[in-house]
Design brief:
Elements (H helix, E strand, L loop, with lengths): L22 H8 L5 H10 L4 E8 L9 E6 L3 H9 L7 H8 L4 E4 H4 L4 H12 L4 E5 L7 E9 L6 H30 L14 H11 L4 H8 L3 H15 L4 H11 L7
Antiparallel strand pairs: 1-2, 1-5, 3-4, 4-5
Helix pairs in contact: 8-10, 8-11, 9-10, 10-11
């Protein structure tokens, strides 16, 4: 998905600890060069093949609701599939990020057997090269939920591989923190729109928006659809990002104007 990821030159505080592994990324950012080659090299150095960073939260602009930003080196096909199938509702990495800020090391064996939908997600993820990995939530100064994830096509993390991940875990977490610092400087502080703006709403997002148009709150919608309130809010972050709306009322107005909610709410 990230064929190119280039920022205006960003100044990074070099007085903080910077592992040598991450130096090429920071130098590329400071010089305004494409970050993807450095990102891919760092991911490979840690023994993974892809990375994903997602931010769902309020931007500094007033009178707005949350936004959803996603950056990943995974193919666009998987990003769209994940979005349209509402995998956020059963992705163990996302669920774990809501429950704990500690790193989560997972593979196909560790997450199977929870329920049929999770198993279906794991099957589909494996078919698209996501068989195992490590993920964790990140602290941000803005009110938000974030997740940083490195993935491998290997479906099994054996003892030797787990030991290697644990050995590198400190620098992996710093990798996530430094990428987030670049994201805040390049997108949040500059007020840039999410990359998903203009993308089609998923069926689940249309459901949430239609119920909101009927006056239902996030808890109401969660009870109605059998999903957590936080997941409903996640969907609305995506809805606002796709429609370029400031809040739910504006999103409803945009959706009605475009005929996305059918003949009536």
């Amino acid at each position: 998905m990230l064929q190119q990821f280039q920022l205006a030159p960003a100044k990074i505080d070099r007085s903080r600890y910077l592992p040598p592994t991450l130096t090429p990324l920071i130098e590329a950012a400071e010089q305004g060069r494409d970050l993807v080659p450095a990102l891919n090299a760092i991911v490979k150095n840690f023994g993974f093949e892809s990375f994903m960073y997602a931010f769902s939260g309020h931007t500094p602009k007033p009178a707005n609701d949350s936004r959803m930003y996603v950056f990943t080196t995974l193919p666009q096909e998987w990003v769209m599939r994940y979005d349209q199938r509402a995998y956020v509702e059963c992705d163990p990495r996302v669920i774990c990020s809501f429950e704990s800020c500690l790193p989560f090391i997972w593979d196909q064996a560790s997450e199977r057997g929870r329920d049929a939908r999770t198993d279906a997600f794991l099957d589909d993820a494996l078919a698209h090269g996501i068989g195992s990995g490590v993920s964790f939530a990140l602290h941000v100064v803005h009110p938000a939920r974030t997740i940083f994830s490195l993935s491998s096509a290997n479906p099994v993390i054996d003892d030797a591989r787990r030991h290697a991940i644990v050995r590198d875990l400190g620098e992996i977490v710093l990798f996530g923190q430094y990428f987030q610092e670049l994201f805040v400087k390049a997108f949040l502080e500059r007020g840039l729109a999410p990359l998903s703006q203009g993308a089609p709403l998923s069926g689940r997002e249309v459901e949430c928006l239609r119920l909101s148009a009927r006056g239902m709150t996030s808890p109401d919608i969660g009870n109605k659809l059998g999903i957590a309130e936080r997941t409903v809010n996640f969907h609305f972050g995506n809805i606002l990002s796709k429609l370029g709306a400031l809040n739910r009322n504006e999103a409803i107005a945009v959706a009605v104007r475009r005929g996305l909610l059918g003949p009536g709410p």
